[in-house]
Design brief:
Shape: globular
Largest sheet: 8 strands, parallel, barrel
Distance between the termini: 76 Å
Oligomer: single chain
Number of strands: 24
Structural class: alpha/beta
Strand order of the largest sheet: 4-5-6-7-8-9-10-11
Length: 662
C-alpha cells in the first residue's frame, strides 16, 4: 500500500495524506480504508439545519480526535453563515478552538469555489485571502467544488490552497440528467487533475448515486486519473451504505461517514455500520471502537436538544430520486417554509423543483444552486404564478454570473427573467473588481476586530454587521440569539387544553333547556325507570320524573334554568379590544413573504429609491431578504414613492405594507 504525498513538508501537507487506491489494489495485505467524519459539519447541517453550537463540538472533540479518522469535516458549507446569522458565534473562533483541541486529525472544510462560503461569486483577492487565513487558523484539507461543475470557478481556489500549503481536493458534484454521463464526469476529473489537485471526491449531495452507478463511475475515474478518489453520499434514498461498498471495491480509497446518532435520513451513512461491513472484507479502517461508543452516547444525549421538530416520519425519502434536493437543503427548506407559515406546501414545492431545475439547464443541486433553484421553486408555488417573483440570485444565474449551466436554459423563461439583457460568457469573477482595498471603509469604526471579521463582512455584510453589533454589547445586555429563540419556541409547552365543559356550560339557551325538560316530562309520563340520551357529546340519564346529567363523575341533580346559569357564571372583566393597526392611506407595495426589509443592496450601497422619487414599472424599490436570498421588490407600474413604512433591517411579514406610492 502506497500513499500519495505532497512534495513539500508543511504540517498541512503531511497531515493530508490520502490513500492511493491504485497501488493499494496490488497489496496482498489488508487495504487501509480512510474515513472522513462529517458529524461536526455536514451531518448536523443535514439533520439540524446547522444548529450545532461550538460548545457542543468542544464537549466531544477530544474523543473525535482520538477515534482514528482520516480527517474531520468541521467548517465551511453553511456553518459560516449560520454561526453569524443564528448562533451569534464567530466562525473563525470556532475553527481556532477546534484546531487547538484536535492535534491528531487533519481538519477539513467545504469551500464553494469562487463562492467561498457565500451564495455569489467573490473577487479573486477575497478568495485568496480567505484561503490564506483559513489555512492559518487550522484548515488542512479543502474540498473545493462548483455548483455547476464549471472548472473556471474552481481554478483560483485550487491555486490558492496549494500556495498556502493546504491539500486541494477537487470535486465532482454528482447529479443525474441526460447531460451528466460517466464520460462527462471523466472529462471533468481530467480537467481537475490538470490543475494539480491532490485528490478528487465524488460529491453525491442528494444521495442519488446508486451502487451500480457508483461502481461504474469510480471504475472509470480510477482508469482515467492518477489521483486518489474519495466518495461522499447521503443516506436519503436508502442506497448510501451499498453505494459505499461498491465504490470502495471499485477503487475509492476514502468515504464520508457520521456517527450513528447523527447519520442516516438526509445525513451520511453510519460509521459503525460501515466498519462492521468492511471488517469482513480486505479493507481496514482501524478506528477506535471505544471512542466511537463514547461519541455516540454524547450525541444521544444532545440530539433531543438540537434536532428539528419537523423531521419526516419516514427515514427514507424515495422522492429524492425525483427532486434531487441535497441533505443540507432538505432540513433548511423545511425550516424556511415553516418560517413562511407554508410548511404544508412542501409537497407542492418538491413537485415544482424538478421543473424549475429543467428550466435552468439541469444544474446539480448543491449550494448555491440548490438554494437558488429551491427558493425559486418555493416562490413559484407561493406566488401562484411561475416566475412572477424572481430572486436577484435567480436573475444572476440566468445572466451567467454563476458560470455555465450544464444544459441550455429554457429560452422563454430566460427572456421572461432578463428581457433584452444578454448573458455573459466569460469567467464570472473576471468581471469583479478587487474588494479588499475598499471594503474596510464600509464597516463602522470599532466593529471589526480582526482581518477575519473583514472577510466575514465580505461574505455576509448585513448579517456580519448584526453580529458585530450584538458582540459589542455587554454580555448581560445581548439579546437572546435567534437560534436560542427558535429552541425556546420549539420547547415551549403546548397550551393547556380548556377544561372540559360542564353541562351547565354547554347548554346556554332557553331552547336547549326547554327541549330537555320536554324529554324529562315524557319520560316521567311513560313511567320509565331510566332513559338515556346523548346530546352535544353529553350523556343524560333520565330516571323517573327526575333528570340526572353527568360528565364523567359529575352529577347535577336537576337542570338549571338559563337565568340561573347566567347568574352563576363566573364574572370576567371585559378586555379592551386590541388596537387596530393604523390605517394606511393610498396605494401600497406589500411584502410578498416573511423576511427582512432592506432599502439598499448592502452597507455602503445607495438606496434603491428615496421618498419623493419617481420610479418606472419594474424598477427595484427595496429588498425583502428571505430564506437566505434577496428578493428585489419592484414597482408594479410607473409611480412616485410617497413614504416608506418599514425601517431598514426590520423584520416584516407577508402582506405587510412596505411603502406608499401614488
Amino acid at each position: 500500500m502506497t500513499a500519495k504525498k505532497t512534495t513539500t513538508k508543511t504540517p498541512a501537507k503531511v497531515a493530508a495524506v490520502v490513500v492511493d487506491a491504485h497501488a493499494s489494489k496490488q497489496s496482498k495485505s489488508r487495504i487501509p480504508l480512510h474515513i472522513t467524519d462529517t458529524t461536526l459539519r455536514d451531518a448536523h447541517q443535514s439533520l439540524w439545519a446547522t444548529r450545532m453550537r461550538t460548545k457542543d463540538i468542544m464537549g466531544i472533540i477530544d474523543a473525535v480526535d482520538n477515534a482514528g479518522y482520516y480527517s474531520l469535516e468541521v467548517w465551511g458549507g453553511a456553518t459560516f453563515d449560520v454561526c453569524l446569522r443564528f448562533l451569534r458565534e464567530n466562525p473563525w473562533e470556532r475553527l481556532r478552538q477546534i484546531k487547538a483541541a484536535a492535534k491528531k486529525t487533519p481538519l477539513q472544510m467545504l469551500l464553494r469555489g469562487q463562492n467561498v462560503v457565500g451564495y455569489k461569486n467573490y473577487p479573486d483577492d477575497v478568495l485568496d485571502r480567505f484561503v490564506q487565513l483559513a489555512c492559518k487558523n487550522g484548515v488542512d484539507i479543502f474540498r473545493i467544488f462548483d455548483a455547476l461543475n464549471d472548472v473556471r470557478n474552481m481554478e483560483q481556489s485550487i491555486k490558492s490552497v496549494k500556495r498556502y500549503g493546504g491539500h486541494a481536493q477537487g470535486t465532482i458534484s454528482y447529479t443525474i440528467s441526460a447531460f451528466h454521463t460517466v464520460d462527462e464526469y471523466v472529462r471533468l476529473a481530467r480537467n481537475l487533475e490538470a490543475l494539480e489537485v491532490d485528490s478528487i471526491v465524488i460529491k453525491d449531495m442528494a444521495g442519488i448515486l446508486s451502487p451500480i452507478g457508483g461502481e461504474r463511475l469510480v471504475s472509470a475515474l480510477v482508469k482515467a486519473v492518477k489521483v486518489p478518489i474519495q466518495v461522499h453520499t447521503h443516506a436519503t434514498s436508502g442506497m448510501g451504505t451499498a453505494t459505499y461498498v461498491e465504490c470502495v471495491r471499485a477503487g475509492a480509497g476514502a468515504i464520508d461517514c457520521a456517527i450513528s446518532v447523527m447519520s442516516s435520513r438526509s445525513s451520511q451513512p453510519p460509521v459503525e455500520t460501515m466498519l462492521a461491513i468492511f471488517n469482513e472484507t480486505e479493507y481496514h479502517a482501524n478506528l477506535d471502537v471505544e471512542c466511537l461508543r463514547k461519541i455516540c452516547r454524547y450525541f444521544e444525549a444532545l440530539a433531543p436538544k438540537r434536532e428539528q421538530a419537523n423531521m419526516p416520519i419516514n427515514p427514507i425519502d424515495p422522492e429524492i430520486l425525483l427532486h434531487h434536493i441535497p441533505g443540507g437543503m432538505i432540513s433548511n427548506l423545511r425550516s424556511q417554509l415553516a418560517d413562511q407559515g407554508a410548511l404544508d406546501r412542501l409537497p407542492e414545492v418538491l413537485l415544482e423543483l424538478p421543473k424549475t431545475r429543467a428550466d435552468m439547464g439541469y444544474p446539480p443541486l448543491v449550494t448555491p444552486t440548490s438554494q437558488i433553484i429551491g427558493i425559486q421553486a418555493v416562490l413559484n408555488v407561493l406566488s401562484g404564478q411561475r416566475y412572477s417573483m424572481v430572486t436577484e440570485e435567480t436573475r444572476n444565474y440566468v445572466r451567467g454570473k454563476y458560470g455555465r449551466s450544464p444544459a441550455p436554459m429554457d429560452k422563454k423563461i430566460a427572456k421572461q427573467i432578463l428581457g433584452s439583457e444578454k448573458p455573459i460568457t466569460c469567467r464570472p469573477a473576471d468581471l469583479l473588481a478587487p474588494l479588499l482595498p475598499t471594503v474596510a471603509t464600509e464597516i463602522p469604526a470599532g466593529m471589526a476586530e480582526s482581518e477575519e471579521d473583514i472577510l466575514s463582512y465580505c461574505m455576509f455584510p448585513e448579517i456580519a454587521l448584526d453580529y458585530f453589533k450584538w458582540r459589542a454589547l455587554p454580555t448581560e445586555q445581548r439579546p437572546t440569539s435567534p437560534a436560542d429563540l427558535e429552541l425556546a419556541k420549539e420547547n415551549a409547552p403546548a397550551k393547556q387544553a380548556a377544561p372540559a365543559e360542564t353541562p351547565a356550560q354547554r347548554f346556554l339557551t332557553d331552547t336547549d333547556y326547554k327541549e330537555l325538560a320536554d324529554l324529562a316530562n315524557r319520560v316521567a309520563a311513560l313511567q320509565l325507570n331510566e332513559f338515556t340520551i346523548r346530546r352535544h357529546d353529553l350523556t343524560l340519564s333520565l330516571k323517573g320524573a327526575g333528570v340526572a346529567a353527568s360528565t364523567s363523575a359529575e352529577v347535577i341533580p336537576a337542570l338549571p334554568s338559563a337565568a340561573a346559569l347566567a347568574a352563576a357564571a363566573p364574572k370576567t372583566e371585559a378586555k379592551p379590544a386590541a388596537a387596530a393597526p393604523a390605517a394606511v392611506s393610498g396605494k401600497t407595495i406589500d411584502a410578498p413573504l416573511n423576511g427582512t426589509f432592506y432599502r439598499s443592496a448592502g452597507p455602503g450601497k445607495p438606496n434603491f429609491a428615496e421618498e419623493g422619487a419617481s420610479v418606472k414599472k419594474g424598477e427595484a424599490v427595496c429588498i425583502v431578504e428571505a430564506m437566505k436570498l434577496f428578493n428585489q421588490i419592484k414597482a408594479p407600474a410607473d409611480c412616485k414613492v410617497v413614504k416608506f413604512l418599514a425601517a431598514h433591517g426590520e423584520a416584516v411579514t407577508k402582506g405587510q405594507p412596505l411603502l406608499v406610492v401614488e
